[in-house]
Design goal:
By secondary structure, the protein is of the alpha+beta class. Helix content is 59%, strand content 13%. It is built from five helices and three strands. It has a three-stranded antiparallel beta sheet with strand order 1-3-2. The radius of gyration is 14 Å and the shape is globular. The N and C termini lie far apart (41 Å). The mean pLDDT is 89.
């Protein structure tokens, strides 16, 4: 999907973020330093193959980028997202954090 001819559409973004695990991965990675799969497995309390599958969905769409360092792969939110996508993700991130803070209060 993230090939040279692919242009991310809003429906693609909403589909990929409609899964609760992928939404949580996005929330963890947005505005944070890159993280390895092992950290994400621990934070989500899910098996590594499950987390890797969800990361792959986000990466294929172009929301995440990754970098290999030896046997480790580090994931982060891509820095080349279209402006509309960045705006949607920013609003989504802040809304999720506000809801989390509200539920904790």
């Amino acid at each position: 999907m993230s090939g040279n001819n692919f242009v991310m559409q809003p429906i693609d973004l909403f589909k990929v973020l409609s899964d609760p695990t992928r939404l949580k991965l996005f929330q963890i990675l947005f505005k944070k330093e890159s993280r390895c799969v092992c950290e994400l497995v621990e934070l989500l309390d899910q098996p590594q193959p499950t987390v890797s599958r969800h990361l792959n969905h986000l990466k294929k769409l172009g929301i995440l980028s990754s970098e290999r360092d030896g046997t480790w792969i580090w994931y982060e939110v891509a820095d080349n997202l279209p402006a509309w996508c960045q705006d949607v993700l920013e609003i989504t991130y802040h809304t999720l954090n506000e809801q989390s803070a509200h539920h904790k209060a």
